[in-house]
Give the backbone structure.
Amino acid sequence: MGTQPVADTEEAKWQKVLYERQPFPDNYVDRRFLEELRKNIHARKYQYWAVVFESSVVIQQLCSVCVFVVIWWYMDEGLLAPQWLFGTGLASSLIGYVLFDLIDGGEGRKKSGRTRWADLKSALVFITFTYGFSPVLKTLTESVSTDTIYAMSVFMLLGHLIFFDYGANAAIVSSTLSLNMAIFASVCLASRLPRSLHAFIMVTFAIQIFALWPMLQKKLKACTPRSYVGVTLLFAFSALGGLLSISAVGAVLFALLLVSISCLCPFYLTRLQLFKENIHGPWDEAEIKEDLSRFLS
Amino acid sequence: MEDEQSFSDICGGRLALQRRYYSPSCREFCISCPRLSLRSLTAVTCTVWLAAYGLFTLCENSIILSAAIFITLLGLLGYLHFVKIDQETLLIIDSLGIQMTSSYASGKESTTFIEMGKVKDVIINEGIYMQKVIYYLCILLKDPVEPHGISQVVPVFQSAKPRLDCLIEVYRSCQEVLAHQKATSASP
Amino acid sequence: MACRGGGGPGQFPSAVLSRVSPGSLSTYRTHTHNICMVSDFFYPNMGGVESHIYQLSQCLIERGHKVIIVTHAYGNRKGIRYLTNGLKVYYLPLKVMYNQSTATTLFHSLPLLRYIFVRERVTIIHSHSSFSAMAHDALFHAKTMGLQTVFTDHSLFGFADVSSVLTNKLLTVSLCDTNHIICVSYTSKENTVLRAALNPGIVSVIPNAVDPTDFTPDPFRRHDSIITVVVVSRLVYRKGTDLLSGIIPELCQKYPDLNFIIGGEGPKRIILEEVRERYQLHDRVRLLGALEHKDVRNVLVQGHIFLNTSLTEAFCMAIVEAASCGLQVVSTRVGGIPEVLPENLIILCEPSVKSLCEGLEKAISQLKSGALPAPEDIHNIVKTFYTWRNVAERTEKVYDRVAGEAVLPMDRRLDRLISHCGPVTGYIFALLAVVNFLFLVFLRWVTPDSVIDIAIDATGPDGAWTPRYPPSKKEGKNNAMSKTR
């Protein structure tokens, strides 16, 4: 403040320090004001096609839900024999099981140390239990009205889509919750099918499409991206075809949804990224980048 | 000696302060509020009755009307007997103590007496009252165990709530009496 | 002319002689101010903001201003209290919501605050801390009432997450028509200017201060056979306690003669205890728990090196206190810390275990080779840096400047809110400002200003506590006031 003689004002250069009394007023704004301001340090540049490729996970999951509902509708109408669905499901599961090991040459299996015997055991246990309990599943929701069941299934399937692990690092993601919601929806819907065999096969199918299929997808995506794109397209078209056989309007709407998610949304994302203005500077809270847990373990 | 001065209370209403100086050691202060005015009485009664009549037209039950009459009568009686204080008196006699009397509009009187041995001091304090910050006069009572401590604070003129200028008048006179008391008790 | 009324006939000509510009005439007229400090944070709560308000108020009283403090009730402490030198504190019965900050509806505090502003004849409202809802409420009401406003920001904020986006928006609204803003460091000024989109010309930088007489070195209290590192901070994530838990084992293994003393309490204490347990350092790492402010000095003088691991800091009082006690300071280079001490008194490191360990090792080697200056010398240098008198002097200049400015009238205020805070927020708060104004009109109708008793000043030019040699006429009132404590 006023401690230094005024004659110094010409030579004196402003310093960004508080401990010295400087010959400037307290509200002085120097040229160096905000010189340490940085913008968009951590902002990512997105490639349009890369984002489209990543969006396929969402497409896959939407199609899974669609296929599941279509199959259920066919069963409910009696157009699809349960034995036939069981056979197809079993066959495709076996193919998927073989593929699962073939894609990465058995490396994943070695890493996890899980034997085939263990797989077989858990599959058997699951099938026996589901079969045993399917009469209970059938009668479990008898006292609940059908409308409630439908509403509940819709909410559960929506919840499944919301909480599904699409690979984002967010707090809302919970793959267990997502899977549980899907199975709950399948149990609800299965209880409206004509016989307990139907219910058993429906739940088994739900496990296949909501639990096993995404695992295979993940591996496909990581190891052979090209075939993954093919599989996604194929899956999307079959889901659309199935929906088309039930309702043309629904199929058109669903197709629009898929197109907007896979093409429009990525376009928007890359566009809006240009407007991003993330401010950084010395006032930011420092991040601890090291792993400090090693001192405690 | 007796004089009367006009002051206002914290809401802007009028108050009258009467001071009676019987002797240098004995003084009386009397704050009187205006009596219940006919206009406000009429206004309240009319509102209650109009509301009752409105209800009556809605549900066509004549009990409401009679209930309204009872409510106004009982309310008025209760108000006059328990709430509305017309006059508050502070009598201070240096050798005896301080007597506070409040007389209700119905004529009921309630009296509190504090003997001089218990009185530590009379002060003006500040406090938060409803959505206001006000000054009030209060009497500090000595703690019987610890001679310098204060065991209780007794507010004076609780219902009238006069403004600071009025309180200062009373405060000065009280201090004179207390000083007189100290002087006489110290000298023998 | 307005200035003739206040100045008094004797002083008026001298004002003309000494200062020529018409602007300074008006500043002369308001040579002493009636200042009302508002913050949710005040004693008995402890912290940087609290001591800042208290010390600043004391120095302003010493300079002849009238100062009152308004805060919310702390437990049983409610009503009106007087502190040293007649500093009057209003503890208002408002509900505390979170972290000692009151809940805000933007309106419910208006009746009481207005009553206080009127009865104390306040001319300048000085709010503290952006975390305090009451401070923002008071700014809002003061602008509605047409009083001058000053705001002091004590903290830094990021721009990245959702919560900071929201609080920054609120700050923009709150500060867009505030007359002047005070920040505690240049970094804090940059931060506040960006957060609230302000004109940097109305933001002053006035650092905090420490009382150098409270923090004097005492070289005989420390053992020179061992090296002691002192840490005094709350044990929370933002203060970098996690880094500390990495530094302690690293250095304790390397230097057998190194001890740590850690003062402070917090949720991260548990990880320090785990580290101590795991590396068997019970005799070398002392955890003292929560410290009273008066004990801090006694802890500081036991050490040779002070370590600060904060991850963000607007102005670090702790390192100034430590340097004032003659310790070598090792600190992270974050926020405003590089501005606080000159390079020869502080070793700045990056916020990582590796860098902080290197900094500490440098300090240890300097200490062993005797290259560090004596504690008494460090104290003598540091004590000239920051004093509360200087802070008060500079704050007074801000008040003088603000007193000469006009408060925006209602229409211009609404314009400013709408043009400055974005279309949605701007209109919402403009509407709220109008509602607030109508509420004020209603309150003025219910209890006109003339009905409100003017409070007897405890401080300021006519204060009952202001020392004056000829006994004044108000002796009786003086008595009354002093006995209310």
In short: Chain A touches chain C through 30 residues (CB under 8 Å).
